[in-house]
Design brief:
The chain is of the alpha+beta class. It is built from 24 helices and 25 strands. Strand 5 (106-109) and strand 6 form a beta hairpin. Helix 10 (326-363) packs across helix 11 and helix 20 (663-697) runs parallel beside helix 23. The longest helix has 38 residues, at 326-363.
């Protein structure tokens, strides 16, 4: 019986080439998109799933109090891990790790060559066991126990030494510490949040010698006993904190995050070291996008199948007269739908193989093609096939199988008012989904354009940030500044600990007029040149001194207006006032206007530049007076190598660094633009097919009207009006839905656009024009046809 149903399904597909082509094309495009997006979703949700103890690993979070703006940090103090192992029975082991320079590049010298290493971490020996790091050389039991030892990945070993046989070889970090290699590990999987190329023993770091409860800089993971309840663990961590830190010194509380949430649920957390970060909101958005496009294709199928009901009615009537039951007919129609979706899935998966590399490029992911063969993904595709078949075939199967054979065989019409209403409703639903997608993309791009063009309070254009972390002789930094200023393309140079968009230090300032626990301040050690490079707007006072004698113990600071307001001063009143923010009192010498040093998702906070030698100045900021910076990179590199020949030249452009803060939104928008365009195309395919069958059904009516004198324009208007009405209804429904969704998305930004009428007007007009062009092709074709051909049988 099933074999006969398949034969009939194949015959029907061949007998209606237009119907079959439109549906297979629409379903193929939709299933290609769905396949790629489901691959992306599968990849994103698979992070950190490979570890044998994955269900018992938790990351420690630090949740700050109101004085520190109630933020959540992904890093904990050095004393948390060893104390938890001692005091909390559920904690079986723990590992602490942090990135070199708290996120800055390391300079590696192997005696034969120099390298820039962006993924060097310091870590406890326990990382090997907790995270199942597989050593292909070395002893896993003690590879990271001793100071000045390291394990490196196989790829890194080949890059540094042209061989993976590197046990006992040494290298220097920042031309300072000499490190001995004690192990080589297999490259870490692409779907883990661990992104290190090498781990240096934690005993090498200064944190191992001076662990504290105050400095929160170490990413810390607990390996807990089976069945540990997170709430109970957090309660015991609170007791541990109360036991070791006095209440007034507790500026934070401790919490835990399950390992399976680390990748997707950490967007709002601060100071994460891993560059592998995901977004659950992006996963949800793209999941909805995949489902929407799939639903649009299924609606096409339902619409076209019911539109063909008059042609298929005779088949149903004869079958029922010969004894076919309703269930037999339902199976037959589902077999036809299943065959069509199966063909489309084969094409869809084949196309997904072709477009996946391009999708990886757009999304910034590394989804392997091998994921297509994974058991879970194959089962997902089978599930998509079944769901698409059941959804697309539901209305045609139930509607067609319920037709009365008596009415059919007596020549009656089978198209009912209800079926026409359902078709119209499905067309409206299609265009609602498509319009919502287009408006969403429109608003995302408007917000990104607003971010790009907003006055940030400083000038990020034409600034190169050169890392000077590897220059141990600070006299060479001064010489480098002097040499750079001698080049014709450089207008200003200055050294600083960081710059806007880059993490600096955090301190507290207390106000004599406010007893509120203090204000968190981002502090940046800098020289006068750095502030000149940034072109900050001074409201009062002057810049930091150009030259500061070694014997000069005075600490001078330039604060932003936010701090002056908090202290209760006007910018002019703040000058020469003392401020208790540094290890000892400092003097305010200047006040600059507020500027956006962080992402525009956050309001402007307190920021200060100072000249206390408490932090390392890690960057040389260079402002150019020419437009094309890239042509002058070789000149700058030559000057750099002349002064410090043994330090790698590592640079970036400040405006590009700031753009990186919004990379996720840009990628999501790019993906949404492509797939939304395809969604519109699929919806128009359905509209085209529906217009074709409507024109076919009204062929005789059109011919009679034409004989009676109707013009081609009038007939086109007659056939197009009904469809345009449906699009107009879709717009009325889609506009408030779009506004509600995108208003919620914009709430994440402290600085944002207002949603105006333009996205709705442009999208509305575009939707009507697209629909009109789609329908008009068939309408014109029907209107210019010879009426004799339609009426000669009457």
């Amino acid at each position: 019986m099933f074999k006969n149903d398949l034969k009939l399904a194949w015959r029907n597909l061949k007998s209606s080439p237009l119907f079959s082509a439109i549906n297979i094309l629409g379903l193929t495009i939709s299933l290609t998109i769905a396949t790629v997006l489901f691959l992306f979703i599968h990849h994103e949700t698979s992070f950190n799933s490979m570890y044998k103890n994955k269900d018992n690993i938790y990351r420690v979070l630090v949740e700050t109090n109101e004085s520190f703006n109630s933020k959540t940090y992904t890093n904990a103090p050095a004393m948390v891990a060893p104390t938890a192992i001692e005091d909390i029975p559920e904690v079986l082991d723990a590992v602490r790790m942090y990135k070199h320079g708290f996120g800055d590049a390391a300079y590696i010298n192997t005696k034969n060559a120099e390298f820039i290493e962006n993924s060097l971490y310091y870590a406890d020996q326990s990382i090997i066991d907790i995270f199942d790091i597989k050593l292909i050389q070395g002893n896993a039991a003690d590879a990271l126990l001793q100071p000045n030892t390291a394990i490196i990945s196989k790829t890194t070993a080949l890059r540094y030494f042209d061989t993976d046989k590197v046990i006992g070889k040494t290298f220097k970090i920042d031309d300072d510490k000499e490190i001995s290699i004690t192990g080589v590990f297999e490259d870490l999987p692409v779907n883990t949040t661990l992104d290190a190329n090498m781990y240096v023993s934690f005993a090498t770091s200064f944190f191992s010698k001076r662990p504290t409860w105050s400095n929160s800089s170490l990413e810390t993971y607990f390996l807990t006993a089976e069945g540990t309840v997170p709430q109970n663990l957090v309660a015991k961590m609170k007791d541990m904190l109360d036991k070791n830190v006095e209440q007034e010194a507790q500026w934070y509380s401790l919490n835990v995050q399950p390992l399976d949430q680390v990748y997707l649920y950490s967007n709002e957390f601060q100071y994460a070291y891993s560059e592998r970060t995901g977004s659950i909101s992006q996963v949800k958005s793209l999941t909805w996008l995949a489902l929407l496009i799939l639903v649009i294709a299924c609606i096409n199928y339902m619409n076209l199948a019911t539109a063909r009901s008059q042609k298929r009615a005779l088949e149903v009537g004869v079958s029922k007269t010969l004894g076919a039951s309703t269930s037999n007919l339902i199976k037959r129609f589902y077999a036809e739908t299943g065959l069509m979706t199966f063909i489309s899935i084969l094409f869809g998966v084949a196309l997904a193989l072709l477009v996946l590399p391009y999708f990886n490029q757009i999304s910034g992911k590394s989804i392997p093609l091998s994921l297509l063969l994974s058991t879970s993904f194959v089962l997902s595709i089978i599930a998509v096939w079944i769901v698409a078949t059941l959804l697309a075939g539901s209305y045609p199967a139930l509607y067609m199988s319920s037709l009365s054979p008596k009415q059919i065989l007596n020549g009656g019409r089978v198209t009912t008012k209800n079926s026409a209403t359902v078709r119209k409703g499905l067309v409206v639903l299609q265009f609602v989904a498509s319009v919502v997608l287009i408006i969403g993309v429109f608003i995302i791009y408007n917000q990104l354009n607003y971010i790009k063009n907003k006055d940030l309070g400083f000038n990020a254009e034409q600034i190169m940030a050169i890392s000077i972390n590897g220059i141990n002789d600070r006299n060479n930094v001064g010489l480098l500044e002097q040499k750079l200023l001698e080049t014709v393309m450089v207008s200003n140079v200055g050294a600083a600990q960081g710059y806007p968009g880059k993490s600096v230090s955090g301190r507290m300032v207390h106000s004599p007029i406010n007893d509120d626990g203090g204000l968190t301040v981002q502090t940046n050690r800098a020289d006068a040149g750095a502030l000149e490079v940034l072109e900050l707007k001074f409201l009062a006072g002057k810049n930091l001194p150009v030259v500061k004698a070694i014997s000069d113990t005075l600490i001078e600071v330039v604060i932003n207006k936010k701090i002056a307001d908090y202290l209760g001063y006007t910018p002019e009143e703040a000058i020469n006032q003392n401020i208790s923010m540094m290890p000892r009192d400092a003097t305010i010498v200047g006040v600059v206007d507020d500027f956006n040093y962080d992402t525009l998702r956050e309001p402007i906070g307190a920021y200060a530049f100072h000249n206390l030698d408490s932090e390392w100045k890690e960057f040389l900021l260079v402002r150019f007076n020419v437009d094309d910076l890239r042509e002058n990179i070789s000149t700058i590199e030559a000057v750099f190598k002349e002064v410090v020949p043994n330090v790698p030249f590592d640079y970036s452009f400040m405006d590009q660094n700031i753009e990186q803060l919004y990379l996720e939104e840009k990628r999501t928008a790019s993906i949404a633009v492509i797939f939304s365009s395809l969604a519109i195309f699929v919806a128009c395919l359905g509209l085209f097919g529906l217009a074709s069958f409507t024109a076919e059904q009204r062929r005789k009516e059109i011919s009679i009207r034409k004989v009676l004198g109707a013009s081609v324009a009038g007939l086109v208007t007659l056939l197009s009006t009904d469809f345009i009405k449906l699009v107009a209804i879709a717009l009325v429904i889609a506009f408030p839905i779009s506004y509600y969704i995108m208003e919620g998305w914009l709430q994440d930004f402290s600085y944002r656009i207002s949603i105006g009428w333009q996205p709705f007007a442009i999208t509305g007009v575009s939707a009507v024009i697209i629909a009109l062009l789609t329908v008009s092709f068939q309408a014109v074709r029907a209107a210019i046809a010879n009426p004799v051909n339609a009426l000669k049988t009457e």
